[in-house]
Amino acid sequence: MSSVLQRLRGGNLEVFKFGTYVLFPIGWMYYFGTNLDERFSVKDFWPTAEQSHKIPLDKEEIDQELARMRMVDAVRREKRHRLEAQAQAQAEAQLQAQSQTQTAESS
Fold it and tell me: Does the keyword Transmembrane helix apply (predicted)?
């Protein structure tokens, strides 16, 4: 061990460090860059053609897609308004119940 340390002095140490600095990233890239299909593959990771979106190209397809999107937005808007009205009714009922309890307590 001491003979190795005695050899790695001055210029030899610098050559060893330079070789390490150069070879380590090259070895790292070689290890992770080869055989990628088997090493990092996940089954069914990418969607199939049937699962992915189909971009409409014709005017009729675009109109159908816009109509579908508008219908979905209308349904969401209606649901949101219904939930807001329900929450507002609950808040009013709570306020009314509180005012009745305060009136009953003060009497």
Answer: yes
Number of neighbours of residue 65 by Cβ within 10 angstroms: 13
What element of type H or E holds 49?
none
Per-residue burial over 75-99, b = 16 or more CB atoms within 10 Å of its CB, e = otherwise: eeeeeeeeeeeeeeeeeeeeeeeee
Query: Are 39 and 80 within one domain?
Result: no
- Read off the pTM: 0.45
What distance in Å separates the CA atoms of residue 96 and residue 89, rounded to the nearest whole number?
Answer: 10
- pLDDT, tens only, 45-84: 888 888 888 888 999 999 999 999 999 999 999 999 999 9
